[in-house]
Design brief:
By secondary structure, the protein is an alpha/beta fold. It contains twelve helices and eleven strands. The protein has a nine-stranded mixed beta sheet. A two-stranded antiparallel sheet has the order 5-6.
């Protein structure tokens, strides 16, 4: 019998070679498709590559057939597509899939692109502007009791407070530090300083969350272009390598969540760090999904930047600020102050890449020795802590 030999293909290194945001904040006249296109054009221009090299596209959240409709609008005919949709962590998960595809030779350059007019839709009273997740499937057992998305996060925060003594002041400090970072970002939607008292005295949304504990609603889009290592020499920007990724889903029904104080980032983060060959203490800064203040706190714990239950003390020391903090988090101001048009995970990757390149301007992070940061982590969260995607990024291709 003749055996067919399988030749082992050398896995290619993968880099982010282009990133950009569309117009963000208050964008009343554009459509979501237009924001997709604007972000995509800017990311391609940022990379210096021609659109003809793009043979993969990943998109979610728009239309009936998201990547098909978006690719058609952009004039692309990809041979690799991804429409994974797991909420805010979608883009970190998609980045993982795209990196694997490029490394294996199934694609050469993959465009991740998103755009949303979430704020403008509400302002215009459009029917699709504020629809719920629905009441089918497992959700039918929770929706009749008013179990909203924000209420689920609020319940989880209360459990952490009960278990570990985390205080409202500690949670509020997350919002205060996000705003301090946003003050350094000329593109942030809200830049005026706030205090812990401002957060605590605001209108109650879902106990214990007042208004400033919650993310803003904005319009905006983002795009990230990943490419194989052989394209890097043709790029105009410093490459940022995808070093390791991890993804995890845990639950959709709250009754199936074993522990409200542990997010799926505990698994995705551990996997990403192991694959990257680094440890949490090696990371220079983090971009973390922050639809609510509690998300930042518990994700920091679960990624290993502090022990479980110590997140409150960790964030209360002002460590998350670009100016004066020793571990900057959400350096653009995050979803709490910069922009949050929906599934914000792609914005985390854009900001991480800009920081690693040294392109962040007044909010630029530096290492203690004054050098640019070398390692970053972007960790997205979807649903009500239902899913997590974590990406470890490093400057350069070595």
């Amino acid at each position: 019998m003749t055996r067919t030999r399988t030749r082992t293909r050398t896995r290619r290194k993968v880099a982010v070679v282009g990133v950009s945001l569309s117009d963000c904040g208050r964008v009343d006249e554009a459509t979501p498709y237009a924001l997709h296109a604007q972000a995509a054009r800017r990311a391609l221009a940022d990379s210096g590559l021609d659109r003809t090299v793009v043979d993969g596209i990943a998109s979610a959240g728009l239309g009936t057939l998201a990547p098909v409709e978006v690719a058609e609008y952009l004039g692309l005919r990809p041979t690799w597509v991804d429409s994974t949709s797991v909420g805010g962590s979608t883009w970190e998960v998609m980045a993982a899939h795209a990196a694997d595809a490029i490394a294996a030779g199934h694609a050469n350059a993959v465009l991740l692109v998103y755009g949303s007019t979430a704020r403008a839709d509400i302002k215009a009273g459009r029917r699709t502007g504020n629809l719920s997740f629905g009441a089918r499937g497992p959700l039918q057992f929770e929706v009749p009791y008013g179990h909203t998305l924000i209420a689920k996060y609020a319940m989880a925060a209360r459990r952490h407070m009960h278990e570990y003594g985390t205080t409202l002041e500690q949670l509020a400090s997350v919002a205060v530090q996000a705003r301090a970072n946003a003050a350094l970002n000329p593109d942030a939607m809200f830049r005026d300083p706030i205090t812990v008292d401002d957060v605590l005295s605001g209108p109650m949304i879902a106990d214990p969350f007042t208004k400033l504990h919650c993310c803003i609603r904005s319009d905006g889009g983002a795009a990230v272009l990943l490419a194989a290592e052989e394209y890097v020499q043709d790029c105009r920007t410093t490459p940022v390598r995808i070093l390791g990724t991890g993804e995890h889903v845990s639950h959709t029904t709250m009754s199936e969540w074993p522990d409200f104080t542990v997010s799926p980032a505990a698994v995705s983060g551990r996997t990403a760090f192991r694959r990257a060959g680094v440890a949490p203490q090696d990371i220079d800064f983090a971009e973390i999904y922050d639809a609510f203040t509690y998300m930042t706190l518990v994700t920091l714990e679960d990624l290993g930047f502090c022990e479980k239950g110590e997140g409150g003390e960790f964030v209360a020391k002002g460590r998350l600020k670009v100016a004066g903090g020793d571990f900057p988090v959400n350096t653009d101001g995050g979803g709490l102050s910069a922009q949050h048009p929906g599934m914000r995970g792609l914005f985390l990757l854009v900001e991480a890449v800009r920081q690693l390149r040294g392109e962040a301007g007044p909010r630029q992070v530096h290492r203690p020795n004054g050098h640019l940061p070398e390692l970053a982590v972007a960790s997205g969260t979807g649903g009500w802590f239902c899913s997590s995607g974590t990406v470890v990024l490093g400057r350069g291709m070595s």
